[in-house]
Fold Uncoupling protein 2.
Amino acid sequence: MVGFKATDVPPTATVKFLGAGTAACIADLITFPLDTAKVRLQIQGERQGPVQAAASAQYRGVLGTILTMVRTEGPRSLYSGLVAGLQRQMSFASVRIGLYDSVKQFYTKGSEHAGIGSRLLAGSTTGALAVAVAQPTDVVKVRFQAQARAGAARRYQSTVEAYKTIAREEGFRGLWKGTSPNVARNAIVNCAELVTYDLIKDTLLKAHLMTDDLPCHFTSAFGAGFCTTVIASPVDVVKTRYMNSALGQYSSAGHCALTMLQKEGPQAFYKGFMPSFLRLGSWNVVMFVTYEQLKRALMAARASREAPF
């Protein structure tokens, strides 16, 4: 078996909470350029019709977007908003992933046999709760990723300035802009991501196709990433557009979605699909594999510390 062995004692809620946040930060560090490329592709053409947008598109494809950004803005542009992104993951992933098992056990009243309904309910709950905690960090991250590095023309020069400027110019509500589509997105993402991972892993183990180690975690995470991208992409595009919009551009998330449909057609809801899949697929693999190993490492360290000499 590769990696740390599973311990006899299940990981505590604290271990899961800290492990999830740390694993998500590691995954973000590795996949952040793909996320930035996804944001740029999603907001491209939002003030134009589909014909004009296609003709004047600055970014084409994942690799093209990354290369264009490096050429015109420098390599650092790929990590614009990273600080807010890591702040988001430590608060966001810790809640939505780290508390998932505990909430699932709450809904099943401690039973080890959790049905699909209980899993979906737990995923929706922790996803919505995470947004309530981490929404301002998500707004700042998206704003940073969307802006081009053009010196004085940039909207924000630092993460702290972004928080202050948004609060000053748009009020407290500005930091919570897009909460509704983000709650919807993350309830969907959490259900698709965690429940799919949970189900694939359980199926592989119960059918004795794999053992509880790295290949099983990798396969489950990759499947979860693909399912999540297909299901959540439309809501993700609307969330990105709405969060990045100027004050008064859209009256609501619904208005944003309707405007996209009228101006750019239904295909607009799957803009940036490939970078979304590349990012979510790779992010899921890195995050879940790291998370599983961190849980085991932390529990092994705890057991060795508590073991008598």
In short: Residues 193 and 224 are 5 Å apart (CA to CA). Residues 273-306 form the longest helix (34 residues). The chain is about 70% helix and 0% strand.
